[in-house]
């Protein structure tokens, strides 16, 4: 059974590692009360770089506790819930194997999987790991961005229940593998999920599919 082990909210931090804005909400800490998830984001959270984060299809981000454990061993760091910048730390699931457009009920909210996280320099800077973007991309277990279809409160301990899965069968990991790992062999399969992608990400994926088909 997949459950929420922690619901996390941002503590805005500043520093040279925080990119062009000099501040970031990637550092998230466990909340001690239920948190409201809405179509525009997570109540009490903070998004600093609204050019790249905070769209409706990035209302929340979920990451696996098992992946925090993996990176703790890999990097020799003690990573805890919220350290990947996630609003929801999940246990008992490989979230990156979820399907694009898959719908979850958690607590009082209904969430829809929209796509993978793409690692960036701010993430690498926050963890203070040169080369993390490349390492994270090669590993390929990115966690998932979520849209909120039905607002509601979520608490630690809530079960993650799958309400529906699209027929196309395209996993978040497969979309990431095509767009970020160069897996051109997946182009035809990933094309099936285009209608379930947010418009901006759909255009990017469609371009990669077209490019892969042209060179096949």
Describe it:
The chain has 216 residues and is of the alpha+beta class. The protein has one domain (3-168): M1 Pyruvate Kinase, Domain 3 (Beta Barrel). The protein is built from six helices and 13 strands. The chain has an eight-stranded mixed sheet. Strands 6-5-12 form a three-stranded antiparallel sheet, with no helix packed on it. A two-stranded antiparallel ribbon has the order 2-3. The longest helix is centred in the C-terminal third of the chain and has 17 residues, at 199-215. The model has no long low-confidence stretch (mean pLDDT 96). GO terms for molecular function: catalytic activity; molybdenum ion binding; pyridoxal phosphate binding. This is MOSC domain-containing protein. InterPro entries: Benzoxazolinone_Detox_Enz (IPR052353), MoCF_Sase_C (IPR005302), Pyrv_Knase-like_insert_dom_sf (IPR011037). Pfam families: MOSC (PF03473). Residues 29-163 form the MOSC domain.
CATH top-level class: Mainly Beta
Q: Helix and strand succession?
A: EEEEEEEHEEEHHEEEHHH
Give the overall average pLDDT.
Answer: 96
- Structural class, from secondary structure content? alpha+beta
Query: Strand sequence of the main sheet, in spatial order?
Result: 4-1-8-7-11-10-9-13
Give the total of beta strands: 13
What percent of residues adopt helix (DSSP H or I)? 25-40%
Catalogue the unreliable spans. Answer: none
What is the fourth-level CATH superfamily?
PK beta-barrel domain-like
- What is the terminal-to-terminal distance? 41 Å
From the spread of the alpha carbons, the general shape counts as: globular
CATH topology: M1 Pyruvate Kinase, Domain 3
Strand content: 25-35%
Radius of gyration: 17 Å
Overall structural domain count: 1
CATH architecture tag? Beta Barrel
The main pleated sheet reads as: 8 strands, mixed
Number of contiguous helices: 6
Organism: Saccharopolyspora karakumensis
Protein name: MOSC domain-containing protein
Pfam family, one: MOSC
Domain MOSC: 29-163
């Amino acid at each position: 059974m997949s459950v929420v082990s922690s619901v996390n909210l941002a503590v805005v931090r500043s520093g040279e590692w925080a990119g062009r804005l000099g501040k970031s909400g990637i550092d998230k800490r466990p909340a001690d009360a239920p948190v409201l998830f809405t179509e525009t984001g997570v109540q009490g959270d903070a998004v600093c770089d609204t050019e790249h984060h905070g769209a409706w299809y990035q209302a929340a981000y979920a990451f696996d506790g098992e992946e925090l454990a993996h990176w703790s061993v890999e990097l020799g760091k003690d990573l805890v819930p919220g350290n990947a910048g996630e609003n929801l730390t999940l246990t008992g699931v490989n979230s990156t194997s979820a399907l694009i457009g898959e719908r979850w009920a958690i607590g009082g909210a209904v969430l829809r999987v929209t796509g993978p996280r793409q690692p960036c320099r701010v993430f690498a800077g926050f963890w203070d790991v040169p080369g993390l973007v490349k390492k994270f991309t090669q590993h390929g277990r990115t966690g998932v961005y979520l849209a909120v279809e039905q607002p509601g409160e979520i608490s630690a301990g809530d079960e993650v229940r799958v309400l529906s899965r699209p027929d196309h069968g395209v996993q978040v990991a497969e979309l990431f593998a095509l767009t970020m790992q160069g897996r051109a062999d997946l182009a035809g399969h990933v094309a099936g999920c285009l209608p379930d992608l947010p418009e901006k990400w759909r255009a990017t994926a469609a371009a990669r599919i077209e490019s892969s088909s042209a060179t096949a």
